[in-house]
Amino acid sequence: MNYYILFPALLVSNLANAPIRDPQILRLGASAVTTIMIGAAVLFILGALRPTPTARFGPALQGVLRFNTYLALSILAMVAGIQSLERAAVYLAISVPSVNILAIIALSDGVVWRSPIMLVKKVGMNPLVLACITGALLAITNIGLPFGSEQVLKLLAQGSLPLGLLCVGAALRPSALGQDILPLIGNALARLVLMPCLAIGVAYIFNLSSAETLVLLVFFTVPTAPSSYVLTRQMGGDGTFMAGIVTLQTVGALITIPVVLHLYGAS
Predict the structure, then answer these.
(1) How far, in whole angstroms, is CA 164 from its chain's centroid?
(2) Which pLDDT score, from 0 to 100, does residue 132 have?
(3) Contact 63, 224 (CB under 8 A)
(4) What is the band of 266 on the pLDDT scale with cuts at 50, 70, 90?
(5) Which end of the chain is more exposed for a tag (fewer CB within 10 A), N or C?
(6) ∠ CA 259-188-161 to the nearest 5 degrees?
């Protein structure tokens, strides 16, 4: 219910009225893409230098690049207020399709380039991608949310974040931590330590304001998305490895998120 109804409602309601023509918002989008692509480039180069089975490379890439949207939005609402969700929605409109495409490429060993229809189907069926496209189109065309639809969507959206946090806990699988502990730790450090540092560097290069920098930083500070496990299983990846990545990162984030926010001055 949250994945197909409540969370898409949150995205559409925040994106439809977002100031997407604001230069700072545009720089936030560019910063998001740049950070994601730098991370992806490093991972693909490492994968070429040290060949890794696709079944494990796909989870590793998702562990570093994907993000727990529910947790990120909850943190932003807590430290920056509800008004920060409009900026976050713009970030998601750009980042969600990007990371999903990269994840599918990694899990398919590049087969999608020979069958682009597969990529379109996988990305196009994602309700979050569809919600981002819908919200962005409403904002670009200045249609907004007419005929009382805004209130309906906002009512649905109110249940998304609390339910999303329940999903975070439900996705934990401690039994998956029994093996591959060193790769799991390495992946967690890359996600929870190196990616926030990269995000701060990119924010500095793009001269983001403090509000936009906080949005970028939070999305690269939270652990990977629990839905990564579902995609991994659907595409024949190592589900146990992916479950271990999600679990260790989520537990580790209990320590790293407060530290990163404190160092940035947002706590």
Answers:
(1) 13
(2) 82
(3) yes
(4) low
(5) N
(6) 65
Q: Are 35 and 198 in contact (CB under 8 A)?
A: yes
Give the total residue count for the chain. 267
In the 8-state DSSP scheme, what is residue 238?
A: -
Nearest to 82 by CA among 160, 195, 163: 160
Give φ, ψ of 154 to 5 degrees. -65, -35
- Do residues 156 and 35 make contact, with C-beta atoms less than 8 angstroms apart? no
Q: Quickly tell me which residue has 């562990």 as its tokens.
A: 63
Burial of 144 (0-12, 13-18, 19+ CB in 10 A): exposed
Rounded Cα distance, 167 and 3, in Å: 10
Residue 151 one-letter amino acid: Q
Q: Where are the alpha helices (DSSP H) in 16-53?
A: 23-49
- Our measurement of the distance from residue 222's CA atom to the centroid of its chain's CA atoms, rounded to an integer in Å, reads 9
Please report which confidence band the pLDDT of residue 167 belongs to, taking 50, 70 and 90 as the band edges: confident
CA-based nearest residue to 92, from 58, 132, 44 = 132
CA separation for the pair 99, 11 (Å, rounded): 17
**Most confidently modeled range among 52-66, 73-87, 148-162, 223-237:** 52-66
CA distance 214 to 2: 25
Q: How far is CA 234 from CA 25, 42, 227, in A?
A: 34, 25, 11
Residues 6+ apart with CB under 8 A from 65: 36, 39, 40, 43, 99, 102, 103, 224
CA-wise closest residue to 43 among 251, 185, 223, 191? 191
Residue corresponding to tokens 């990564």: 228
pTM: 0.84
Average pLDDT over residues 60-68: 95
Residue with tokens 């962005």: 136
